[in-house]
């Protein structure tokens, strides 16, 4: 007779053994930051639909919409610099809170703006505040987490961003049919909630002045770091390509008769794949040579966008999105960890701000360049150019590999 003791049971600790190398060992403060990031991204509905909003609801031409989105990118570029300085001077907590609460107010101003001048001014203000929190958030992770565990930590934040993204894209595409103003209000509320959560539950992580340097020299010291500057340039090429999914992709899909809901469903595949795959591969990728990981990611992103030239239906667009998403997953495993390795302790905010200019610059140039390419030669020219730029970024990263590898081992 079989007794309860004879029934095979799951060996104790197997589940813990699976999760420990992926999410274990991080302090409570990190998880509060992670939760706030997830909350913030659950409301990210305006940016990917901004081009459609400006051309349909506000009646702007393709060129005018591209200019307004470029102003958003220009503000973001300045916001990264300002955020880096503030994170090092007044602290991570105060910078993050002020930026996110301010973003909520600016989001509502843009949603209620009428006429090209008001839309342009609101977009510039929103851009300035929108990414100002990022240097503080990234410096906070570098403050809290050891170099060996930083790739995992940044990977978990990337996963939270895309978990929220997957939900936001489906809801955003549906809500856009009911009225775009819903998107602005939801985005504004989640931004403000992120700031309030950090202010109430996250202590300051910046080292006291004198303990980790004075920050003397500021951005001039960062700009004299040739490895860092070259890394930012390579990342800018990559970001220009990656940002086409949030700027010109919905416009290209519209030329095939596919509206905002179709775009929302297709781009949601990006977040869904990241949510499923990234936690499984992030720990493994973080242990590989960082530059080789980045080269592989850049190439995959380029191939995915290159294949978009042949897409004309929702399933086809979704398939190409899945290809470049695989590249995004690979690159994201180590992108920010390289910056943390390169940055001196007293300039973490500024190095993160300088790195952020690659993303802000990509968002600035993506609508300008993307809409011009789309207008001049149609989708074929746009997506072929994206393939070429991604391959150029991969070649640049390969050239930087020895210097980055040296700095990585020196930081341990």
Features of the shown structure:
mainly alpha; 412 residues; single chain; globular; Growth Hormone, Chain: A
Walk me through what this model shows.
It contains 17 helices and no strands. It is mainly α and 412 residues long. The chain has a single domain (28-205, 221-410), classed as MFS general substrate transporter like domains (Growth Hormone, Chain: A). α4 runs antiparallel to α5 (92-111) and α14 crosses α17 (348-410). It is globular, with a radius of gyration of 21 Å.
User: How many individual β-strands?
Assistant: 0
β-strand amount:
under 5%
Rg value: 21 Å
The H-level CATH homologous superfamily, spelled out, is MFS general substrate transporter like domains
What percent of residues adopt helix (DSSP H or I)?
over 70%
The span between the termini is: 58 Å
Mind summarizing the main beta sheet?
none
Total of DSSP H or I helical runs spanning 4+ residues: 17
> What letter string, H or E per element, gives the SSE order?
HHHHHHHHHHHHHHHHH
> What is the CATH C-level name?
Mainly Alpha
Task: Categorize the overall geometry.
Answer: globular
The name of the CATH architecture is Up-down Bundle
Quick structural gist:
Helices cover 78% and strands 0% of the residues. It is an all-alpha fold.
Secondary-structure map:
Blueprint (H helix, E strand, L loop, with lengths): L13 H10 L4 H15 L7 H8 L4 H28 L2 H20 L4 H15 L2 H12 L5 H29 L2 H21 L16 H6 L2 H17 L6 H7 L4 H27 L3 H18 L6 H19 L2 H8 L5 H63 L2
Helix pairs in contact: 2-8, 2-9, 3-4, 4-5, 4-6, 4-7, 4-17, 5-6, 5-7, 5-9, 7-17, 8-13, 11-17, 13-15, 14-15, 14-17, 16-17
